[in-house]
Amino acid sequence: MVSLQNTHIRRLTQSDFKILKMFHVKHFQNYSISDHSLIAYLTQSQYQTYGMFHVKHLIGYVIFLTCDCDADIVYIGTDPNFRRQGVASTLIQNFLDTSKISQLFLEVSIENTKAISLYQSLGFEIASIRKKYLHNIDAYLMVKKI
Q1: Of 123, 93, 118, which Cα lies nearest the Cα of 108?
Q2: What is the pLDDT of residues 16-28, one digit of tens each?
Q3: Rounded to whole angstroms, how far apart are CA atoms 120 and 54?
Q4: Dist CA 35 CA 88 (whole Å)
Q5: What CA–CA distance (Å, rounded) separates 23 from 86?
Q6: Among 144, 141, 122, 146, which residue's Cα sits nearest to residue 131?
């Protein structure tokens, strides 16, 4: 486990495409994202993509889809060496502190108990179940009202 000293968060842009792609490929092979989608997440105004860096290395990221007063977490990922140290919660909280949304939504596999616990600790509640949503596994639709 590595210490979270010397970290910073910033919004990612198109110039971060290679960094984000390599991070995602290295750590999340089971969840492929096309290059076209990654570029959209980094360039289109309805998306806000943030990365947390340890010194100069990306250790976590989150992609939000925003629409009026609502937002969805599209993707979120943390380097395995930095998990359970607050990277994901810090990224989410940073967005909540700087946005003007009233609700934040996400989907999570009902089998991912660690993620569910994290989201519940941040005030998310289970709103419904989406049958066979992620890789033919049911998922919870969770919401945090601001």
Answers
A1: 118
A2: 999 999 999 999 8
A3: 26
A4: 23
A5: 18
A6: 141
pLDDT digits (tens, 9 = 90+) for 26-69: 998 777 899 999 999 999 999 999 999 998 899 999 999 999 89
pLDDT of residue 143: 98
- The 3-class SS string of the chain reads CCCCCCEEEEECCHHHHHHHHHHHHHHCCCCCCCHHHHHHHHHCCCEEEEEEEECCEEEEEEEEEEECCEEEEEEEEECHHHCCCCHHHHHHHHHHHHCCCCEEEEEEECCCHHHHHHHHHCCCEEEEEEEEEECCEEEEEEEEEC
Q: What are phi and psi of 39, to 5 degrees?
A: -60, -40
Sketch out the chain's domains with CATH numbers: 7-145 (3.40.630.30)
Q: What's the Rg (C-alpha) of the chain?
A: 15
Phi, psi of 111, deg, nearest 5: -85, -10
- For strands 70-78 and 103-109, give the pairing: parallel
Tokens of 41: 């997440």
